[in-house]
Write a structure and sequence with these properties.
The structure holds 4 protein chains of 4 kinds.
Chain A: E1 4-11, E2 17-24, H1 31-42, E3 61-64, E4 67-70, H2 76-79, E5 84-88, E6 95-97, E7 100-101, H3 104-112, H4 135-143, H5 151-155, H6 157-161, H7 168-178, H8 186-194, H9 207-211, H10 218-234
Parallel strand pairs in A: 1-5
Antiparallel strand pairs in A: 1-2, 3-4, 3-5, 6-7
Helix pairs in contact in A: 3-7, 4-7, 7-8, 7-10, 8-10
Chain B: H1 10-37, H2 43-52, H3 56-84, H4 91-113
Helix pairs in contact in B: 1-3, 3-4
Chain D: E1 4-13, H1 17-29, E2 35-38, E3 56-57, H2 66-76, H3 83-104, E4 118-119, E5 129-130, H4 136-149, E6 154-157, E7 160-167, E8 174-181, E9 186-197, H5 218-225, E10 230-231, E11 236-243, H6 259-262, E12 266-268, H7 288-300, E13 310-313, H8 319-325, H9 327-335, E14 344-354, E15 357-358, E16 371-373, H10 390-412, H11 421-431, H12 433-436, H13 442-456, H14 463-482, H15 494-518, E17 541-548, E18 551-558, H16 570-575
Parallel strand pairs in D: 1-2, 1-9, 2-6, 9-16
Antiparallel strand pairs in D: 3-5, 4-5, 7-8, 8-9, 10-15, 10-17, 11-14, 12-13, 13-14, 17-18
The chains are: A alpha+beta, B mainly alpha, C mainly alpha, D alpha+beta.
The complex binds flavin-adenine dinucleotide (FAD), protoporphyrin IX containing FE, iron/sulfur cluster (SF4), FE3-S4 cluster and FE2/S2 (inorganic) cluster.
FE2/S2 (inorganic) cluster is lined by residues 50-53, 55-60, 70, 72 of chain A.
Amino acid sequence: MADTLQVSLWRGGSDGRYVDYAVPARESQTVLDVVTYVQRHLDATLSYRFACRVGMCGSCAMQVNGRARWTCRTHVSKVAEGGKLTVAPLENMPVIKDLAADMREFFGKWQRAKGRFAPSKTRNDPVEPIDPATPQRRAADAAIECINCGVCYASCDTVKWDKDYLGPAQLNRAWTLVNDVRDAGNRERLVAVSEGSGCHSCHSHQSCQEFCPVGLNPTRSIAGLKRKSLAAYLKGELKP
Amino acid sequence: MSMLANRTRPLWFAAMIHRLSGLGLAIFLPFHFLVLGLAIRGEAQLDTFLRWTDQPLVKFSESALVGLLAVHMLGGLRLLALENMSWRGGQAVRALGLIAIAALVAVYFLVRVF
Amino acid sequence: MNVALYAWQRATAALMAPLVLVHLVVIFYAMGAGLSAAQMLARTRGSIAWGLFYGVFVAAVSVHAAIGVRTILIEWTPLPRRAIDGFAILFGLVLAVLGLRAVAAVVLP
Amino acid sequence: MPIERVRTDILILGSGGAGLFAALHAHAADPKLDITVATKGLLGKCGCTRMVQGGYNVSLHKGDSIERHFMDTIEGGKWLPHQELAWTLVTRAVERVRELENEIGCFFDRNADGSLHGKAFAGQTFDRTVHKGDLTGIEIISRLMEQVWARPGIRQLEEHRAVAMIPSKDGASLSGLLMIDVRTGALKFIEAQAVLLATGGGPTMYRYHTPSGDKSMDGLAMALRFGLPLRDMEMVQFHPTGLYGGAETRMTGTVLEEGLRGAGGYLLNGEMRRFMGDYDPKLERATRDVVSRSMYAEMRAGRTTKNGGLYIAMSHLGPDKVRKMFKGMVERCDDCGFDLAGGLVEVVPTAHYFMGGVVCGVDTATERPGLFVAGEDASGMHGANRLGGNGVANSTVFGGIAGDTMPRWIAANRGHRPPDEGVLDAEVARALVPFAAKPGDVNALREKLMDTMWNDVGVLRDRAGLDRGLAALDTIEAELLATGVADGNRAFNLTWHDWLNLRSLIETSRVITLAAIQRENSRGAHFREDFPEPGDLDSSTYTVARQRGGKIEMTNEPVEFTIVRPGQSLLADAAE
Ligand SMILES: Cc1cc2nc3c(=O)[nH]c(=O)nc-3n(C[C@H](O)[C@H](O)[C@H](O)COP(=O)(O)OP(=O)(O)OC[C@H]3O[C@@H](n4cnc5c(N)ncnc54)[C@H](O)[C@@H]3O)c2cc1C
Ligand code: HEM
Ligand code: SF4
Ligand code: F3S
Ligand code: FES
């Protein structure tokens, strides 16, 4: 390992530019640590975002050498090509400053996709018994552990090309709810994902699936939504 | 900005090939229809046309079109399967295989027209 | 793309797959047999079967390609949606008209 | 300096389990109220509720009872908990879990018969911890976040940091909060009829710590300055197995799950010797506090790895088995360059949870009208030790209660209360202090603080060390005040926030140290080597700290055994 890393960091807003820094290489060092080093020792005004440090909060995602990743759990040795790192804010989101992206639109679309539980019961009812082996529960489980990091969203060219496209994480969440037998909102949800720029706009590029740091498969979830909504449409249950 | 990494993946290329082949077909098709429509005015013209198509360059581009059709169809069938059948991994390998088959069809056509 | 357009695009795609196969086989066969234009037309003219075959093909491809072109324009051009929709419909109609004219030329006796 | 002024009816500080539950409940109680959630990071993406791995304690399972959960909580807390608060915690948790499942949409794991699965968590007599895999917090907070986003009536101020509580003109109540909009760097005063403090404590002043990076005891530092009484401030819970990757990586201190020891993992010192036998016959399976103390003692004696940590070894269980059993942990270690399944991973005890906090009632009200507190900022529920699984129960139960209480309180006490402008001006100046001094190395001071707290006010304590720590804190504070931050661009200026974090941490560290001096016995998380005995349970007291005129006063208050006395058990009563 070289003893210094050549690091280029995006500075400024959308009209910013890359600035180069030399950061000492360490044995245990994540990309987040590199960025932190620059802020602590080289340029105190560098802005970035993190919280949990362990891949649970999805706050720290950035473009690292062109690829969206969670930086807190990306060891430098796995990504630095020839001791070089280029770090930029997440693609497909407005830049706030330096490495921090604005996620409001991401969560706005989450709501547009009806990515929220619609209750059919209240706190006064017992918890609904659900057989963990049913196909629906399994399908929900397979897609549920999303940390809303935005990596998939930043890696999807359909998002880039169609500003209204709901996005892989959002549709993946909608799919977990479609498979949640307790949910009462599926009619509206299917309408929401079946409108223009919904699940049917996905071209199965599969970058979302390949890059999702927690190993989810939004492509599969979206395919599920396509099937489900198509069936509902053909039965005349959807009036988009 | 370094090259976006999602654009260096096989499945992204597969999607681009699918799109460009579809686009190519869409652009070619009106001309194809136009030419066939000439047949209304008699076989003579059509024959002149078909003789024109004997030129090597035309044969090459016709082979390319057959290739486009094959690659677009196979790619489209892959997508239909992915969307409608239970999930399978190895999509990149599949996509590459289908593109290869389409290329073979095109080459076969090329060999046959000459 | 919404579910209606999706349904049409995927349905026409599924429909066209066998048609394309047959079409390719026909081309290869014609080539292999070294048929001239006149010989080919002799076989198609007056054939209801071929008329139906290519009529359906043209209809499907017009719908399919129009929807496809619309998607591409939405994603790759900054044109307004309404202009794109108009263009796609126009494109589909042109394809259908030209295509049916061609079918007529090949099939009508 | 004129700053932006905003008014809202209810201001909620923090977007963890406590803050988000409060917002939802308040909104449900009165949708006409203007509710604002201000949070230091992104809504629901900062704080520790997200990081909950183990799960949520609730007595919903056949064979369990509220009384049993209560007794576990009291005994775990070494008879120091406020019993009414603890009782509220365990009783309301039942309704809260049903609410999480039925209304919020959490999808907890089930048994084969479809009922909720309860897993075992150390220190409890029943397997009552409800969970979603080992990522329970993600499920809880993501679902809460979605519900809040779904209600446009709840205003969001993301990346807004509270810096000071501003009293009303008459000084009797709270007027509002001085905030910094992190993104622009601008100061803002938010006047509110009711405020909930839910910033989640967070003992990040220790060399090794688990909480998220945004937590720096701001809430308690503000409460202290506002003159509120703080309880149990000596009680810092340490988790035995924090990942150790060296001083310069943020991974250091993050939790490696409890189950590793439970499953038979070995702890080894630098000489590769399994040392737990020297301390406790239960070896690695001893309770959190015992293992943490043993590890700390081992490290203090210098028997460490060359990097200064200890090892956890799992490979003797079979690397493939380990990989299967602890998939998440193995992957996390692997991402960071460590082989948990087949090799050795360095670990250290790590500061995990803060039992101390603002004194409050069962309705979350504090001493000052208009101010409420919930979650890790509140105190009394856990006493000397928090049971694993009671943390998120605490924040969600009392967050919801706060959300129920505040609209009622507003209905009875209508109106905003204009601020004391003098205090507001002074606090504005205080927030900008670092820009006046010559820029310096803020991080070096943070390192100093972390070392001081680790060495002198850490897992094992004695009077001499605590006195040393107190003196060091004064020095660090003085150095901090002389260390500035360059005043170029205040927008998203993390170094400015690091500075402010550090100040909060120093101020609360001082209270921790004073409280640790005050308690001359050893209970739960607090261990005095010079007073190793727990003392008489019947005359148990808890410590209270309060700042008056710039000085911190410490008192001991007797624990009131309103429900059960030491030596008794509700379970015995129930059995009779
Ligand atoms: C790694 C880990 C694992 C845990 N596992 C468990 C478990 O298995 N079971 C369990 O019961 N408990 C567990 N806990 C404890 C539990 O997570 C916490 O006790 C609980 O979630 C605290 O909730 P809260 O709402 O009070 O605070 P948090 O969820 O921490 O939220 C605090 C909020 O306040 C914000 N904030 C902080 N300062 C300011 C400021 N100045 N201005 C504005 N906003 C501010 C933060 O950004 C954050 O949004 C765990 C904790 C950690 C760290
Ligand atoms: C043989 C049968 C065919 C099949 C199975 C097929 C399948 C498909 C499918 C599944 C798509 C959607 C791709 C996506 O959303 O990413 C598609 C798109 C498209 N198709 Fe076809 N197609 C066929 C024939 C044709 C023909 C003959 C044309 C040309 C006239 C054509 C033109 C297009 C165009 C332009 C697109 C849009 C491409 C894009 O969105 O990226 N297709 N096709
Ligand atoms: S699906 Fe994966 S990549 Fe996308 S937001 Fe969720 S966790 Fe991140
Ligand atoms: S990358 Fe985008 S196109 Fe679809 S499969 Fe994933 S959402
Ligand atoms: S900091 Fe939370 S995922 Fe990286």
